[in-house]
Please model this.
Amino acid sequence: MKTRHLTALLAVTALLAVPDALAASITVKGSDTLVILAQKWAEVYMRQNPDAKIQVTGGGTGTGFAALQNQTTDLCNASRKIRAKEIEACVKAFGKRPTEYKVALDGLSVYVNEANPIGQLSIEELEAIFTGRLRNWKAVGGPDAPIVLYSRENSSGTYEFFKETVLKGRDFAASAQTMPGTAAVLQAVAKEKNGIGYGGAAYGAGAKHLRISREKGGEAIEPTEENVVKGVYPIWRHLFIYVNPALDKGPTAQYLNWIRSDDGQTVVKDVGYFPLPKALRQ
Model:
């Protein structure tokens, strides 16, 4: 009789423990561009789901992919697409290609100090400025003053995207000062009247963004939601989350589904990025 009572007690105890066992405990690492959005997603989701535990850190897209390969993070935030060598490393580590989810749109912005009279630049002028071929604001219609460059570190997906899309693969000028995150770029530009830098659309306080044209003399476009969704702003991109397919289930899958839901995409807009069109949320 005592044995039957003990067995029943253990069964009840096990059942009571199930909710804690199923509680979401999710780690997120990667893109500094995405970190403020990822932190807000986690905050809102945990408020709606008190059992969920979501830990978010930045460090750059490359750092996130390394953590995904090392299986030290559940989700990797990325401001660029995964590269072939990173896919190979993941396949070697856990036997499968990571699953890619588009989670937001971004109009990557170019920032100057608010006192700078320049209001627009072309892709060609940006390439010449950031590779060091143009060194004085006078060359693009500004004051007679040296151009002070601020860039991201080379582990940043934003750095790589800007290098590929704007610099056409050319190297940044040696004079470019490397900053640890987009917030640091904005702070530097806000303090330096001759500064110029780049970063995600959600970062903008303290500096002004430029209108960008595809060609010199062409129509200069604002990085607005409408222009990014239509693809007319020249420096737009998707923002991504990557996950090991074996982990894409249960609480993790529920969280990823929520991120791409109307609730999750409302957070995207609140933070300052642009929600995905519904056709891309599948």
Notes: The first helix runs from residue 2 to 22. Confidence is low (pLDDT under 50) at residues 1-22. The chain is about 40% helix and 20% strand.
